[in-house]
Structure formats: C-alpha cells, structure tokens
Amino acid sequence: MLPMIEIKKVKERVILVGMGSDYGKDTDILSVDPLEELKLLTETAGAEVVGSITQSLPKVDPRYYIGKGKAQELSDYVKSLEVTTVIFDNDLSPAQISNHEKLLEIKVIDRSGLILDIFALRAKTSEAKTQVELAQLKHLLPRLTRQWTHLSRQIGGIGVRGPGETQLEVDRRKIRERIARLTESLKKIEQRRVISRNKRKTTFNVTLVGYTNAGKSTLFNALSRANAPVEDKLFKTLDSMTRMINFGNTHSILLSDTVGFIRNLPHELIASFKSTLSDVKDADMLLHVVDIENPAWKEQLEVVEEVLDSLESSSIETIIVFNKIDRIKNTAFFEAVKSRNPSSVFISAKKQTGIEDLIISIKEAEQKGKIKITMEFGSRNRNLMRDVYRYGTILETHADGDSITLTFTIPVSMARKLGFYEKQSKMNLENS
Ligand SMILES: Nc1nc2c(ncn2[C@@H]2O[C@H](COP(=O)(O)OP(=O)(O)OP(=O)(O)O)[C@@H](O)[C@H]2O)c(=O)[nH]1
Ligand SMILES: [Mg+2]
To answer: Are the beta carbons of 313 and 211 closer than 8 angstroms?
Structure first.
C-alpha cells in the first residue's frame, strides 16, 4: 500500500512540450503559436514557463511519445534550467508519463491533467467541487505509480491540488471508494436539478456558450445587469448562473452563463460536468459567443461546435455572437467577416455596443423558435395533453400510474396560445 503524500506549495518552473504537424514550424506562417494556449493555461495555474520544446514526428513513439532522442534532449534541458514540472500539450498514456517521470525525476503532467488542475483551483460551489474532484480522481487513478512516492519531496502544485485537499490519497482502493461516493452525491445533485428544471419549464431558456475567455460572463452581465465574475483568465466561470431578463413588459426569458469550452476538453470533465452542462442541452436557444480578437477564433468556433455536438445540442437554434469588436483595428477584415456571416450579431459586451441588436435577434429567434417543456399530465388536463400531441414534438414519455410526464418541444406562439407562457413571469420570479 502506498502512503499518503503531503502536498507542498511550490512555485513551479515549467517546460512545455508539444508534438504535432504544426509544432516546430515557423510561427509566422501559422495563425497562432501552437503552444500559446498551453502557456496561458500554465500561467492560469500559477506556474512560470521557463522554456519549451517542440517535436514533429510522423508517428507517436509508444514509449516516450516524442521519441527517445527528444526525450533525452528534454532531460538535458530540464537539468540546465532547474525545472520542477514538464507539461505536455498532448494527452499521454499513463505509461508514457511514467517513462518520462523515471527519466526526468520530476513531475510530468499532460494537457488534461493541467486543465483539471485549473478547474480544481477554480471550483467554488460544492457541486463544482464534487464534479472536479471526481474528474480528477478518474484521471489520476491509472496514472498513479510508485514513482509518485519517490518524487514525494517535490510533489506539489499542478496536478495534485484537489479541491480543498492538503493530502493526496494514493491508495487505489481508497480512491475507488471515494469515486463511488462522489458519483453517488453527483446523482443526488442531478436529481435536485431535474426538480428545479421542472419548475421553470414554461420559460424560454437562452444559454451562453463559447470558448473560454470569449466574454460570456461579460455579456451575461451586460444583458442581465448581474455581477458575474469576469477576468482575463481561462475558466473563470465553472458554475452556471441563471437570471431572468425582462423584454419590456411583454415577457421575459431566462439567461444562463456556463463553463467555457476548450480544445481537447478532458473527457472525464465532460462526464462530471454533465449536470452543469444540462443548461446547454435543455436550452431553447444558444448564444455562441466568439472572441473575434483572438487570431484562432475560427478554430475555437469549430471546437465549440464539436463539444455541442457531443452534448447532443447542435440542433438547438443558435445565434453566433462575435464579441470584442472594440478591439478590431483591421476594418477590411471586420467587413469580410460580417459579410460572410450575415445572420450573426457583432457586439462589444464590455463597451455595451450592439446589445440592442442582439436583443432584437433574440426576440426574433424566440418568435420563430420552439420551446422545450417537461410537464406532468393527469386526468385534469387531458385536453391540454391532446393539444401537446397535436402541435408539439414529443421527445420523452414517462408514465407513472395515472399521470404521464412528457418532454416536448412546441412553437412559442402555440405555447402562448395554450397558456404555457402566461404563468411564466410570476412563476419564475418566485424561483429565481
Ligand atoms: N476589449 C474587450 N474585452 C472584453 C469584451 N468582453 C469581454 N472582454 C474581456 O475578456 C476577458 C474574459 O471575459 P469573461 O466574460 O470572463 O469571459 P468568459 O467567456 O466568461 O470566460 P470563462 O468564464 O473563463 O470561460 C475579460 O478580461 C473581459 O474584460 C469586449 O467586448 N471587449
Ligand atoms: Mg465566464
């Protein structure tokens, strides 16, 4: 049995390693430095980047990923710069990480491990903490080796900072038990969410999605006059926040802010954040915020679309919102993007420009759109149920004795006619 490891606070000195067809090329011909995002992530995790190494191989080396020769080069580099941690931009197998740790005698983290660590630092609510810890332990379990106890003097910092933990439990059996317990409590949290979701079933739900740091929370605040934390750091928001927005005195919608997406989001995280991300899946409409100032905005837009696809949310009505237009200097580029994306909205959430246009677009989309409702039908509202079958699209049916719970989509105008909408303002004010 392995002992517990004391976690120390250390200021880490990190070397970044990246391998792929783009790495090692002249960065002038690429839109962005391929290691730029990893550098930002590392700094967000509180460490200092002291160097980087890139490799371009036609095939991954099974033992060292980057090849034996490059691994040796990395080892020499590590020694000369007094490095404490090596971070790979790629996701390595547990065996590859272990081989590097043996060779380097320092801690080796991969991209997923780093992202999980940032999430661990950021988690505030008990829900987010549970989700992150679960994801972290699942990631850590196959990577725990005896090597870790040998490295225990240097262990600290990235990769071992669990939410609120000061000691790392390295006993596999205990980790498995903890995983089971956390899974159980997440299930309970999810059930509570289903209940609160049922309560707000008659509102048009709009959810902000987008790459991390795109400006979702800034826009959320601009639209709702709320005070969601905003920062020029990655993954500022981990917990979703929902606010009611009044459109004049006609009606209101519910707007939710969510966690940002990133390239290669660790799959353990997506699994753990399922309940938080249910705000995405259950939305009637998505506002996809794109940071037009970022040279990699196109790739980021595609990554977000891929994640939406994996969340079975790509068919939801979506408005692409290009943000940070106040930072655009090249007007020709701006006009080109505009003419190529005629149905998108261009705004500056920070300077609050274009917000009125966005509200008009949301209203228009809502009029045309469909609303998703989950509702229980008993003997008293059979007629209403018949109308739902006639005008709506049934997504899920759940029968329980005399009552039937239906999840369905229905055009907003019809939802209004059938009286689903009238009750919403009062109801949601009570619940928000
Ligand atoms: N110049 C400019 N900066 C903006 C604008 N909108 C947001 N920002 C800045 O971009 C950074 C990130 O903004 P957030 O609103 O925290 O971004 P987010 O998408 O919520 O990020 P995560 O929660 O980390 O995923 C902050 O420094 C904001 O001040 C804008 O329209 N113009
Ligand atoms: Mg945010």
So the answer is: no
Task: Give the nearest ligand 1 atom to 348 CA.
Answer: 31
**Span 48-72, average pLDDT:** 93
Tokens (6 digits) for 253: 């919608």
Among candidate residues 116, 164, 415, the one with its CA nearest the CA of residue 267: 116
Ligand 1 centroid to residue 145 C-alpha, Å: 39
229 and 346 both lie in a single domain: yes
Q: Tell me, yes or no, whether 316 and 339 share the same domain.
A: yes
Q: Tens digit of pLDDT for each residue in 212-266?
A: 999 999 999 999 877 777 877 787 877 778 888 877 666 678 899 988 898 888 8
Q: Number of folded domains in the chain? A: 3
Q: What domain range is 349 assigned to?
A: 200-368
C-alpha distances out from residue 370 to 105, 317, 374, Å: 57, 9, 13
Cβ 23 vs Cβ 169: under 8 Å: no
| Amino acid (1-letter code) at residue 108 | V
Name residues whose C-beta falls within 8 Å of residue 46's C-beta, 6 or more positions apart in sequence.
Answer: 11, 12, 121, 157
Neighbour count for residue 42 (Cβ, 10 Å): 24
- Element at 365 (helix H, strand E): helix 355-368
- Kindly report the protein residue whose alpha carbon is nearest to atom 9 of ligand 1: 215
Q: Is the pLDDT of residue 91 over 80?
A: yes
CA of 37 to the centre of ligand 1 (A): 16
Task: From residue 393, give the alpha-carbon distance in Å to each of 35, 58, 192, 315, 386.
Answer: 46, 49, 26, 14, 12
pLDDT of the residue at 415: 81
For atom 7 of ligand 1, the residue with the nearest CA is: 215
Mutate to test the pocket of ligand 1, among 350, 351, 358 (most ligand atoms within 8 A of CB): 350
Q: What is the DSSP letter of 87?
A: E
Report the pLDDT value the prediction gives residue 1, as an integer from 0 to 100.
45
C-alpha–C-alpha distance, residues 143 and 274, integer Å: 24
Reading phi first (left if > 0) and then psi (alpha if -120 to 50, else beta), residue 333 is in alpha
Domain contains 180: no
pLDDT in tens, 295-333: 999 999 999 999 999 888 888 899 999 999 999 988 999
CATH number of the domain residue 92 falls in: 3.40.50.11060
Residues 35 and 83 grouped into a single domain: yes
